[in-house]
Structures are given as structure tokens and as C-alpha cells.
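Problem 12. The chain below contains 168 residues. Write out its predicted structure in C-alpha cell notation.
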Amino acid sequence: MLIINKKKIFLGIDPGINIIGISIIKFYNNKIKILYIKEINLKNIKYLYKKLKIINFIINKIITIYKPNLVLIESNFLGKNVKTLKRLIQCQFCILLNIINNNINYIEISPKIIKYIITGNGNCKKYNIKNKLKYFLNNFNFNYSLNYDYIDSIAIIITYIFLNYKLI
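Solution.
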């Protein structure tokens, strides 16, 4: 087993037009600790430029406070609605620009890979991911939100850790 003695801080982001899931996890001595978790709810904001301004402010503030070593982002799901995809890419670009301006590396991970690594099934439902994460993170309560975006932001980080570090 590989023991990681250097503290790693990961920022996980599940980008969205209306809701963005964000989590910060510290990984040290093969232990995972959730430092911060939040959903940015932008449903009530009508104009995209206002949403982008809020996203930029919050992401920059989180990066300044937690100083992550790496940012992990869920890659875009290519749906049939081109207008929605365009807006999603603009939101994701706003996030990426902030990350790049802060000189932080980032990795995009596809939803299918996240689902497969966490549950063993690349086509599973969101509640399957939630249940597996409850098992992996037995000290964390996932019951405070009705949305799955914050859970996805945690799953992105856990996927990266499973793919890159040997854990018991």
C-alpha cells in the first residue's frame, strides 16, 4: 500500500447552468476528509452574465481560501439541446479561466468513468453513487440536500483518488 504523506487538497466541481456542485477534500495519510461542500443555486438568476459573475466570484474565493493542488471537473454530457450545451460550456469556461488564472492544474473526468469507478456500473443512477459514497465516507451525512450536484463533486474527487492512489 502506498501511503501519501504529503497533504493534497482537491477541489471537485460539477458544473451546471442552474446548480453547481463544489467540494473540497483533503487527502493525507490515505485518509479522506471533506473540508467544504456547497451547491451554488443559480436557478433564480435570469441572465447568464450575472450567473457567470457569481460563479467567477465564488470559485475564486474558494481557491483563495483552500489553495487546492488540483481541480477535478466533470466533463460535459453532450445532450440534444444545443442552447443548453452552449450555456453549460460558457459556465465551464468561466470556471476553467479562473483555475488557469490561479495557476492550478485541472483534470476533466467523464460521468461514465465516475459512475464506473464508484459503483462498478457506468450506467448507474445518481442514488447508487450516493449509496456507495456513504459506504466510502462513513463519517459524512449526505441528507442535507435534495440535489445530487454536491455528491457528484465529491464523486469526481473520489474517482481521481481511486485511479491514482492505492487504498486498502
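Discussion. The radius of gyration is 15 Å. Students who got a different answer should revisit the alignment rule from Section 12.3.
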